[in-house]
Specification:
Elements (H helix, E strand, L loop, with lengths): L15 H16 L4 E5 L15 H6 L7 E5 L3 E5 L4 H7 L6 E4 L5 H8 L5 E4 L6 H14 L2 E4 L4 H5 L12 E2 L2 H4 L3 H14 L4 E4 L2 H8 L1 E2 L12 E5 L5 E3 L7 H7 L4 E3 L4 H10 L3 E5 L5 H9 L3 E5 L2 H7 L3 H28 L7 H13 L4 E4 L4 E4 L23 E6 L1 E3 L2 E2 L2 E6 L5 H18 L2 E3 L4 H13 L10 E3 L8 E6 L12 E4 L2 E4 L3 E4 L2 E8 L8 E6 L17 H18 L5 H10 L6
Parallel strand pairs: 1-5, 3-4, 5-6, 8-13, 11-12, 13-14
Antiparallel strand pairs: 1-2, 2-3, 7-9, 8-10, 10-11, 15-18, 16-17, 17-20, 18-19, 21-28, 22-23, 24-27, 25-26, 27-28
Helix pairs in contact: 4-5, 11-12, 14-15, 14-19, 16-17
Length: 609
């Protein structure tokens, strides 16, 4: 009845084959006169999702998480992961040959300082590291009397005999009816930003920035409609777009050539060398530009200006067309979510559903809209103890039956051409415990506090983050992830530079879309998260002495009333919940079948103290 088209549930490779790969890799290092090598989980542009051809870390180690690194020395090897992935890495890698180490505290450089010896030659691929990361590696090597060696070709590729080909998904134009602004106008705005930093040119090394600037979309990586590409934008004059021509139809190419010179990716290096020889100042994005770009500009006589990609902030502030599109996407998504939640309530108590069933059903309901392009990330469907794993990904092996007394945490999103969605709901299967209701209500109160926040223009996400945690802190508990991330317009579901977290230093601007997703996770027991997307809007505050902003909630899906402890809610919080449910009912009721209507009426009925 249901099926998933956009994600799989297979287990990654493990065991003897991976150990053989490590041996072959070490032989290749010896052949190249290297005593070690760094393998990041990265492509040339530091994308969150990378094409299969760039999954070097997973191929070599078996670890499939979205953030990590491996360091292979002649004597030992380690896989570095952040706290989200410690359990996963321990299960996926062969711990007889790999040690699992922290990625952040302490960082891999600390491990290198302990394990490198004088005379070691540690290799790295400068196309897969930013300059900042290369500088840290170089400092660790210098401390140990070792040498950091930039390689011309990646030794992993030399032993990965069945490496998938580079992606060649066709490029589509993202028309003004979705983008709201033509390329020429966007490029003019970017020129202004280039002038501000005093650069002669800007390299767009982030494919998201290229896609936004030139109003194109593609399918080179999973779940994000990216065409892998680069661009070089002079402070005035015609920009150059570097993209594989096999991705372009004649009509797409003709359109792009109205505003840019379109050339193959291989032309980027000679073009930068030519520009650098004139002594040009070239701006690079610190977060995504490969160290290889810094090296070739500097060695050819150019001056590198490292900083934030100005397109990131321009892209984060959505225009009226993008805002209207994302609202339409959320209304469409709401219908699929209501059908899904009604189905779970109907079917799950019998005990026959699994986590995978939930993933497949939700994707099917979204496909029924006729507008789904992809899921915006692999759906997290965790019941019972699996719900406590923050970035859990269900596989056929881990798939758990949804049982009475469980909480089902389902975090999912959709890519529609007019907008990107991301929503989490926690569903009680049968009667929840008092502890579950207490923790859920604390999470809900934090969620409401963010949703109702009023804040002066210039406020950062770090200043708001505490609002989401305050009621959990009162019980001596917390959650280990950020409260919210930026979301793109038919682009990345995790978009910078703004976020609501302890590290969120970018001021929130009107037109930005961010998630609001506090949670609570009890190891080996259950997980709770409530997530809506919020739009930053102007607030009308009488007597305000400076502009004030607020959030407008975009997501429209019932919050499980059975998990709310009414004794813990203030009257204004209860009013927020009832008004939110009234909005959901109004938006969805006329678009669903009678059975879903009946369920929706119950799920959104007003609560009273």
């Amino acid at each position: 009845m249901f099926e998933a088209h956009f994600q799989t549930f297979e287990e990654p490779e493990t065991g003897i084959a991976l150990s053989a790969r490590l041996s072959a890799f070490r032989e290749e290092l010896t052949r190249r006169n290297l005593t070690g090598f760094v393998v990041p989980r990265a492509d040339q542009q530091q994308n969150e999702y990378v094409p299969p051809s760039e999954e070097r870390l997973a191929w070599l180690t078996g670890f499939t998480g979205s953030a990590g690194m491996a360091i292979v020395l002649v004597r030992e090897a380690a896989v570095f992961v952040d706290g989200r992935y410690t359990l996963q890495a321990g299960k996926q890698v062969d711990t007889k040959v790999w040690s699992v180490q922290p990625l952040v505290d302490p960082p891999p450089e600390a491990w290198l300082a302990q394990h490198l010896v004088a005379g070691d030659r540690l290799g790295f691929d400068p196309w897969l590291h930013t300059t900042a990361s290369a500088e840290k590696l170089a400092a660790a090597c210098a401390k140990a009397g070792a040498e950091l060696v930039a390689v011309d070709t990646n030794p992993v590729d030399a032993v990965w005999t069945e490496r998938p080909p580079l992606p060649l998904a066709p490029v589509a134009l993202h028309g003004k009816q979705f983008a709201g602004e033509i390329e020429a106008d966007k490029l003019k705005r970017i020129e202004t930003e280039i002038a501000k930093v005093g650069a002669d040119a800007l390299v767009l090394s982030d494919s998201h920035a290229v896609a936004w600037a030139f109003n194109i979309r593609g399918a080179d990586v999973a779940h994000t409609p990216l065409p892998l590409s680069y661009a070089l934008l002079p402070k005035s004059g015609r920009p150059t777009l570097f993209i594989d021509h096999r991705k372009l139809s004649n009509s797409v190419r003709d359109h792009l050539e109205q505003t840019a010179t379109v050339v193959e990716p291989g032309a980027l290096t000679p073009k930068l060398i030519e520009l650098s020889k004139s002594g040009a100042s070239i701006a690079l994005d610190s977060a995504t530009a490969a160290d290889a770009l810094t090296r070739l500009i500097s060695s050819a006589g150019g001056k590198v200006i490292r900083g934030s990609d100005p397109v990131a902030l321009l892209k984060a502030v959505k225009n009226d067309t993008e805002i209207a599109g994302t609202k339409a996407a959320h209304r469409r998504d709401a219908i699929a979510l209501a059908r899904f939640l009604a189905w779970v309530d109907r079917e799950a108590p019998a005990g026959s559903l699994t986590e995978i069933d939930a993933v497949e059903a939700l994707e099917t309901f979204r496909r029924d809209t006729g507008a789904l392009k992809d899921v915006s990330f692999p759906t997290i469907s965790g019941t019972g103890p699996n719900g406590a794993i923050v970035h859990y990904r269900v596989t056929r092996k881990s798939n758990r039956r949804i049982a009475r007394g469980d909480l089902l945490l389902i975090d999912s999103g959709a890519q529609y051409e007019d907008g990107t969605t991301d929503v989490t709901r926690t569903i009680a299967i049968g009667e929840p415990t008092q502890e579950m209701r207490d923790r859920f209500t604390r999470v809900l109160r934090g969620h409401i506090a963010i949703s109702r926040a009023l804040f002066p223009d210039g406020t950062t996400g770090a200043q708001l983050d505490t609002l989401a945690r305050q009621y959990l802190w009162q019980a001596g508990v917390d959650f280990e992830h950020g409260t919210g991330h930026g979301v793109g317009s038919y682009l990345s579901v995790h978009e910078g530079p703004a976020r609501i977290s302890k590290l969120g230093t970018t001021p929130l601007k009107r037109g930005m879309i961010l998630s609001n997703e506090p949670g609570y996770y009890k190891t080996d027991a259950f997980g709770i998260r409530i997530e809506n997307l919020e739009l930053v809007v102007a607030a009308d505050v009488a007597g305000a002495e400076k502009p004030v902003n607020a959030f407008e909630t975009l997501t429209l899906a019932p919050i499980d009333r059975r998990l709310v402890d009414l004794n813990m809610l203030a009257s204004d919080e209860l009013s927020w919940l009832n008004e939110y449910h009234e909005r959901v009912r109004h938006a969805v009721r006329g678009h669903v079948d009678e059975a879903t209507k009946a369920w929706l009426d119950g799920a959104t009925a007003p609560l009273s103290l």
